[in-house]
Amino acid sequence: MPVQDVIVVASFKAKEGKEQAALAELSALLDPTRQEVGCIQYDLHRSTDDPGVLVFYEVWKSRQDLEQHLAMPYLQALLGKVDELFAEAPQINLLEKLD
């Protein structure tokens, strides 16, 4: 059985009035994350219905690569700002592709 990529959908809901700050913080993760060895895709999206909802769609080569990403200092710094910027805890979903 071939090894499948790890798919992640991570949703963030900015606090009212913190939408731009949240967008700036999440956008700052794009370049360094895309340079990580196991990163295949790392894209940030905004809801068309609610500009405070920001969603990452991520594809990683392996679970180990994802775990290394989660330990990166720039991601840990963001996690330290969750209470300040976001109305709720991020919703993280790991997915598998179905045929």
UniProtKB/TrEMBL annotation:
Residues 6-95 form the ABM domain. It comes from Syntrophotalea acetylenivorans. Keywords: Monooxygenase, Oxidoreductase. This is Antibiotic biosynthesis monooxygenase. One of its GO terms (molecular function) is monooxygenase activity. PROSITE patterns: ABM. Pfam families: ABM (PF03992). It comes from the Bacteria.
